[in-house]
TrEMBL record, chain A:
Pfam families cross-referenced by the UniProt entry: DUF4130
Organism of this sequence: Pedobacter ginsenosidimutans
Domain DUF4130, first and last residues per copy: 82-250
Lineage: Bacteria, Pseudomonadati, Bacteroidota, Sphingobacteriia, Sphingobacteriales
Protein name: DNA metabolism protein
Domain of life of the organism encoding this protein: Bacteria
UniProtKB/TrEMBL annotation, chain B:
Required cofactor names: [4Fe-4S] cluster
UniProt cross-references to PANTHER family, sorted A to Z: ENDONUCLEASE/EXONUCLEASE/PHOSPHATASE FAMILY DOMAIN-CONTAINING PROTEIN 1, TYPE II SECRETION SYSTEM PROTEIN K
GO molecular function: catalytic activity; iron-sulfur cluster binding; metal ion binding
InterPro entries found in the cross-reference section: Aldolase_TIM, DNA_rSAM_put, Endo/Exo/Phosphatase_dom_1, rSAM, rSAM_sf, RuvA_2-like
Protein name (database record): Radical SAM protein
UniProt feature coiled coil, ranges: none
Keywords noted in UniProt: Iron, Iron-sulfur, Metal-binding, S-adenosyl-L-methionine
Residue stretches making up the Radical SAM core domain: 61-190
Length: 254, 418
């Protein structure tokens, strides 16, 4: 049997609720975006329901400590189709077993969540490291990203705490939403880029007049810090895979 | 103006890059004043140079003018290089603007010694005070302690810096004497001891009174240059061990000497820096700090140097086969940590998971154990029955044969921990 949910976190939790309500036996969870009807497999569409979702989440909070609640949420944010199903199976496993069942690394769903969460945390950490702000003419520090996973919810507080005295925007081009910090709080925004606007690079006319200076100085610094006698391209690529180069001021050719 | 600042940055970043410490970890400064920045206990590498080293801090010298003539240093008096000096404001502005753009975690400020130690230390102090007090800057600051600076200046600097360091430079006094006759380890030990004593004083006070200011919260570190002088690995690691113990250092850094001079007392220009040896020393350092090994177990009179072809954890295991095989399902956590192919994370997972049932090979692999390496040293639920006991040397040959192809392709400079 297949359960189909709408891809939201609440939808996923609702699916768990429905399963316990019906106890239909073995079920695979899929999101609408990837679901394709198969012959001979029954399917059931989950109607996302905030109340049911809250009840499941409250139950989980009793079962899981903070670190595992976070692993759970991170796995969801991976947006990987199989990950959704693992979260679903994991939830059932947790509810059906004693406290502490999540430390059973012999269980396939436990190990799957640990792995997905690790990848998502790594991407979050990379964004905290690789985001480069450009100062715009109106004093906002602006950065575009298109991370592998949906990590904006995870990086928000880091940037808010760190850059408390400057307004900033971080925009996820892939998922078409961003965060805007206005010196008091962080809000979600969407931007409609006008036709032809270069999304990856802001036009120089929109920049603060000193922006070019600091870009140059940073590129210079990056070059000076290198020790040619120790060159190790393989290690370099391992730390900064090519797909992240577009973020990095120091890696973008002039 | 534009060109002048570029030139200064190029000269003073270039001169600072041989100091390997990049760590921005250990600080926990919070952004409480709605100012700029905070620092994380874990630290962040914002980029990596093409040689694969972490770039976390803006690492610069205030000036590369120096009255000393240490042979191993690019800034030595007798070296014919361009000289430059930043003003205090220039350093402050660079730091603030780099930090605001998320280029860096903070500032690593060092300096050649101009005029005298106190004069130099005073300038460094001015920079950090301006950042903290005028700019509300809470990012990370790593400050070099200038040998010979007065206690008052060092003490004041410690109120604003997250980490302070002072380099031993050479692993032994004899080595240092050879290359920097004007210097001695005593000059390094005195300020290290002073800062250490202040740190414990402040920590003790903090227990009694809430609002004691922090003092060098990320602790102290030091660096030794490796391969410029003929010390053995044992000399190096015994020195490191002593300094970890006596001064509660957070880190000791080992910097493979990159030839910068034609002086015949040192490896000549064009000699490859000893990167693999450097890697082995770091591995040993980790075994001491996180794996519960005593330095004497790894290096001693019978084994004064680390193996180059295998890592020190594997060498230890092979020399001590009487401890193996270890039963994954019953052994102490401490013993599991000592198994080649098992890291700290995997060891922790094993200890948690085995409460739910005895572990099998496929589970160990999923947990992250490098099974091909570990299999020679363990038994688990479905370990194949082994007819004869292999000797350590045979196991080494197996493992080397298995990793040989990989090893050759990745040339010899890899930084891989176990
Ligand atoms: S005192 Fe420091 S900067 Fe001056 S030559 Fe010696 S190591 Fe270099």
């Amino acid at each position: 049997m297949t359960y189909i949910f709408d891809g939201t976190f609440q939808g996923l939790l609702t699916a768990v609720f429905e399963w316990f309500e019906r106890k239909p036996g073995k079920v695979v969870l899929k999101s609408t975006s990837i679901f394709q009807p198969e012959a001979f497999v029954e399917s059931f569409t989950v109607n996302t329901n905030a109340e049911k979702a809250d009840r499941v989440w409250a139950g989980l909070q009793n079962k899981l400590k903070k670190d595992w609640q976070r692993k759970y949420y991170c796995t969801y944010l991976s947006e990987i189709p199989e990950a959704y199903n693992h979260v679903f199976q994991f939830t059932i496993y947790i509810f059906q077993n004693q406290l502490g069942a999540e430390s059973n690394y012999g269980n396939p769903h436990v190990i799957a969540l640990a792995k997905y969460a690790k990848s998502v945390e790594r991407e979050k950490h990379r964004m905290e490291a690789f985001i480069r702000f450009q100062k715009t003419g109106d004093g906002i520090f602006y950065a575009n990203i298109d991370p592998d996973f949906n990590v904006l919810p995870l990086i928000s507080s880091h940037f808010k705490n760190r850059y408390a005295d400057q307004p900033w925007v971080i925009y996820d081009l892939k998922r078409k939403y961003g965060l805007h910090y206005n010196l008091t709080s962080v809000e979600e925004i969407t931007i409609s880029f006008s036709n032809g606007a270069d999304k990856q690079n802001l036009a120089p006319v929109l920049m603060d007049e000193r922006e070019a200076l600091y870009t140059t100085l940073w590129k210079d610094y990056f070059k000076s810090a290198n020790i040619v006698a120790r060159k190790n391209t393989k290690l370099h690529l391992q730390h900064v895979p090519k797909r992240y180069w577009k973020y990095l001021t120091e890696k973008v050719p002039i | 103006m534009f060109d002048r600042i570029r030139e200064k940055l190029n000269i003073l970043a270039d001169a600072a890059k041989y100091d390997v410490s990049c760590s921005s970890s250990g600080g926990t400064r919070k952004n409480t004043n709605k100012g700029l920045g905070d620092s994380h206990a874990s630290g962040i590498c914002h980029t990596y140079t093409e040689d694969g080293r972490c770039v976390s801090l803006l690492k610069i010298l205030l000036t590369n003018h120096c009255i000393y003539d240490c042979l191993f240093c690019v800034s030595r008096k007798s070296n014919d290089v361009k000289r430059a000096a930043f003003t205090v404001d220039e350093v402050v502005e660079l730091t603030m603007n780099f930090y605001r753009r998320n280029y860096i975690e903070g500032l690593f400020l060092s300096s050649g010694i101009f005029k005298n130690a106190d004069f130099t230390m005073e300038r460094l102090l001015l920079v950090v005070k301006k950042l903290r007090l005028e700019q509300n800057y809470n990012g990370y600051i790593h400050l070099k302690t200038i040998p010979g600076a007065s206690d008052e200046l060092i003490k004041e600097a410690g109120l604003y810096a997250d980490r302070m360091s002072i380099n031993l430079e050479m692993p032994t006094e004899a080595g240092l004497k050879l290359l920097a006759p004007e210097k001695n380890h005593g000059e390094v030990i005195k300020p290290l001891a002073f800062v250490q004593q202040q740190i414990s004083q402040f920590t003790a006070d903090k227990k009694l009174i809430k609002h004691v200011p922090t003092f060098v919260p990320a602790g102290q570190s030091t660096q030794m240059v490796i391969g410029a002088t003929p010390e053995s690995d044992k000399d190096i690691m015994y020195t490191a061990n002593t300094f970890y113990k006596n001064f509660s250092l957070k880190r000791v850094y080992y910097s493979g000497y990159v030839p910068i001079s034609n002086d015949t007392r040192m490896p000549i220009l064009g000699t490859q820096p000893p990167l693999l040896r450097e890697n082995r020393l770091y591995q040993t350092d980790w075994l001491m700090r996180f794996y519960g090994f005593k330095v004497q177990e790894i290096l001693n009179d019978a084994n004064p140097n680390l193996d180059i072809d295998i890592d020190p954890k594997l060498s230890w295991a092979i020399r001590n086969m009487q401890h193996f095989p270890v039963d994954i399902n019953t052994a102490d956590y401490k013993m599991i940590l000592r198994i080649p192919g098992i890291g700290v994370m995997s060891a922790q997972k094993i200890v948690q998971a085995r409460k739910f049932g005895k572990l099998r090979i496929d589970q160990l692999k999923k947990i992250g154990v490098a099974y091909n390496r570990a299999k020679h040293f363990i038994v688990c639920l479905d370990s194949p029955y082994q007819l004869k006991d292999y000797q350590g040397t045979q196991i080494k040959a197996f493992i080397l044969a298995e990793s040989q192809s990989k090893y050759l392709k990745t040339d010899n400079n890899q930084m891989i921990l176990f």
